[in-house]
Amino acid sequence: MLMPVTAVYAAVTALLLLFLSFQVSKYRLKYRQGLGINDDVEFQVADRAQANLVEYAPLALILMGVGELNGVSAHWIYWVGIAFVGGRILHAFGMFNGHGGPHKARLVGILLTWLSMAVMAILLVWNVIQVQP
Q1: DSSP string, 101-125
Q2: What is the C-alpha separation between 41 and 54, in angstroms, rounded?
Q3: Chain segment 51-97, per-residue pLDDT in tens
Q4: CA 61, 25, 14: angle at the middle one, nearest 5?
């Protein structure tokens, strides 16, 4: 069975991950550091922005994919996907522009991420309740 909606957001998330990974790689090359990070705050920011996406993306995409397979409305999944990807972009933007400190984009980004995952989880449970006899 195809999952075209989830596929779009998985692809966009993969592109964002590649961008963030490139940022980390620039610092790894600059400092010739294969593992870990050093005292450079911008290096730490790049590392955490990438790692934060890696921490949230798998479960968010699994929730969307399971929802799509189980028959949750594609409209809901599109909106959840927009919120998730938008949240991840805002979070990364806030991380870099806030230099790891507080930034409005970072706050809005994490809130959108959490909201999108919570909505998708609720939609999945609701969908299961609706199809059970």
Answers
A1: S--HHHHHHHHHHHHHHHHHHHHHH
A2: 20
A3: 999 999 999 999 999 999 999 999 999 999 999 999 999 999 999 99
A4: 20
What would the two tokens of residue 23 be?
Answer: 């940022």
Q: Are 94 and 76 in contact (CB under 8 A)?
A: no
For 99, phi and psi rounded to 5 degrees? 55, 40
Global pTM exceeds 0.90: yes
Residue found under tokens 């949750």: 72
Tokens read off for 85: 């990807």
Residue type, 22: F
3-state SS assignment for residue 37? coil
Neighbours of 78 (CB within 10 A): 14
Tens digit of each residue's pLDDT (9 = 90 or more) over 107-128: 999 999 999 999 999 999 999 9
First to last CA, the chain: 24
59's tokens: 């479960």
Phi, psi of 101 (to 5 degrees): -95, -170
| Cβ atoms 67, 119 nearer than 8 A | no
